[in-house]
Amino acid sequence: MDKLVIDGGVPLKGTVPVSGAKNAALPLLMATIVAPGEHRIANLPELADVESMLSLLGRIGCPSLMGPIVRIDTSRVAWCEAPYDLVRKMRASVLALGPLLARCGEAHVSLPGGCAIGVRPIDQHLRGLEALGCEFQMDNGYVHGKVKALKGAHMRLDMPTVTGTENILMAAVLAHGDTTIENAAAEPEVEELGAFLNSLGAKVEGAGTATIHVQGVTSLVPATRPWHILPDRIEAGTYLVAAAITGGDIRCENARADHLAPVLDVLRAAGCGVETGDDFVRVWRNGPVTPVDITTAPHPGFPTDMQAQLMALLSLANGSSQIRETIFENRFMHVAELLRLGARIDINGNLATVHGVPELSGATVMATDLRASASLVLAGLAARGRTEILRIYHLDRGYEHLAEKLRGVGANVQRGQEGRPVTHIVSA
Ligand code: EPZ
C-alpha cells in the first residue's frame, strides 16, 4: 500500500487549481441512467470513487470513454444491479437505486453497510422512494426494489440527507405527476444535480433549498453540450486550511466563495486573511492561530466534511476550541492520530475540546477515512520534521493529484511504498 511522506514546516504559497466536485460527480454519473443516450461530462475528477462509479455504469451495460470530455453511453441498461463488491468500496453506489427504478422499474442494490464514520442507514432513501410507489424487500444483504409506475408525491424527510434527497430526486423526475420534497438537503451538490437533470429535460425547481418541487416528465434526453461540474468546495477548503496551518498564502482558482462561506467565517475568526473573487478564494495567515468554536450542520451550516481539517488547524491555536460533530456519530477517527503528532484533544461524546499547542512534531500515522486523512496531511505539513501517512488510498478517493498540487505550492511531499524508506523528497 502507498504512503505519503511529508517534511513539514514550510509555509505554502501559490495557486491551486480546484477540481470538479466529487460529491457532485457521483450523483451526476448515476443521473445519466435516467436519460438514454451519450452524455458528455467535462472536468470529471480523476478519483478512485469516480472510477468505481464508472465501473458500476459499465457493469450495468453503460460504457464510458475517458478523455478531457468523458463520454458515457446509457442507451442500454442490461443489468439493474449494484453488486456488493462495488458498493462495499464506495457507499455512494446506493445512488444507483433511484435512477435504476426510474429507468428499469427494478433495482437490486447491495446494502452499503457502515463505514468508519458511522452506521450510515438508508431508511430515508427507501421511505422517499416508497412514497413514489416503489416497493422494497431486503434479502442476502441486498435491497430489491420494484415499481410499476412512479407517481408524484408530497413528502417530508426526517433529516436533510444528501444522497437520500438525490436518490428521490432522480426517480421523481420521471414520475407521473408532481413531487414535493420538504426538509431536503440544500448542499450545492444537490443544486448541481437539479441543474443537470433540467439540462436533460427535467422540470426541477428549488434544488439547493430545503423544498424541492418536481414536475414529472415522460422521458429525458442526454445533455447535448459537455456538462461542467461545479468546483469541489471541500477540496478547496482543505487547501485553504493548508495555507492557514503553515502560515502561508494560497489562492484556490476555480473556487466558489459562496459555497465556502461558513468555512471562510471560521478561518477569519482563527486569524486568517481572506480575499474572494468571482472564481477564486485566497487565504493567508501572518499572526497567531486564535481558537474558534465549531458546530457542524447541514448546508448552509458548517460542513461536517471540513471538521477534521479545521481540527488540525485549531490544534495549533493559542487557546482551546470546542468542536461539536452533529452529523455523524463517529467522525473523530483523526483525533487519535493527531495526538501522535503532539496535539492535545479531549473527546466527550460528539464534543472535541482542542487545547492548542505551540507546535506539532512529525510521526508515522494511519489514515482511516477520507477527511481524517486530509486532516493528517495538514498536520504533517505544519509539523516539525517528517510525517509518514499510511493507507493513503483513503485520500485517493477524494483528492485529485494531491501530492502534485501540494508540491505546486512548495510542500516537500512524496508518495512512497509502505515498508520502503523514502530517502529523497522531491522539493517544490
Ligand atoms: C453525503 O453523504 C456526502 N457524500 C458525505 O461526504 C457528507 O459527509 C454527507 O453527505 C453530509 O454532508 C456524498 O455526497 C457522496 P447524509 P450521505 O445522508 O448522503 C443520517 C465525503 O467525505 N441518515 O446526508 O451519506 C446519516 O446517518 C463524504 O465526501 C439517516 O439516518 O450523508 C447521517 O447521520 C463523507 N438515514 C445524516 O443522516 C438515511 O436514510 C446525514 O447523512 C440517510 C442518512
Q: Outline the low-pLDDT stretches.
A: none
CATH class group of the largest domain: Alpha Beta
When the domains are counted, the total is 2
User: What is the number of strand segments?
Assistant: 24
Secondary-structure-derived class: alpha/beta
Architecture per CATH nomenclature, i.e. the level-2 architecture of the largest domain? Alpha-beta prism
Describe the structure.
Helix content is 30%, strand content 24%. It has 428 residues and is α/β, with parallel strands linked by helices. α6 packs parallel to α7 (188-199). It is globular, with a radius of gyration of 22 Å. The model has no long low-confidence stretch (mean pLDDT 95). The structure holds ligand EPZ. The site of ligand EPZ has 24 residues, from α1, α5, α6 and α12.
